[in-house]
Amino acid sequence: MTEEEIDAFLQSHWTLVLGTQGNGGFPHLVTTTYGLADGEPVFTSYSNAQKIVNLRRDRRCSCLVEDGDSYSDIKGVLMYGHAELVEDRDEKQALRNLVLAHAENVRGEPSSPAGDVERRTIVRVRVERTVSWDFSRVIGTSTSQ
Hints:
By secondary structure, the chain is an alpha+beta fold. It has one domain (3-136): Pnp Oxidase, Chain A. It has 4 helices and 7 strands, in the order H-E-E-E-E-H-E-E-H-E-H. The protein has helices spanning 3-11, 50-57, 89-107, 135-139, and strands at residues 15-21, 27-33, 35-37, 40-46, 60-67, 75-86, 120-134. A 7-stranded antiparallel β-sheet has the order 2-1-5-6-7-4-3, sandwiched between helices. The radius of gyration is 16 Å and the shape is globular. The two termini are 14 Å apart.
């Protein structure tokens, strides 16, 4: 996908699969809602959640957004980067609001508040590499536009 197509794809989705390094060496994968700040994924979580514990230990992570109802329609964007854990209260509040607004915009309905910002950590993924795919281009059978 082109950069413009990747941006449009990310703007049209509201959940991603986050991959972090678990304590025992196994990948830890979880789904979370996200927003975009300057094209980079931002998400929020309780500060004691396993994904935050993992990111405090090792900032490397991956973020996958994918879609498709059949093999020929599968599209995805995989971003590799390092997590920046946001601690400034005002910045945390602004980024939390960005995540909620993104989900509301995509879903077309209000999002439930993400809880007290004091008990949460905001993560901004500083993307270093992006990989994307669109199987409809390979197979040539997609009916979507």
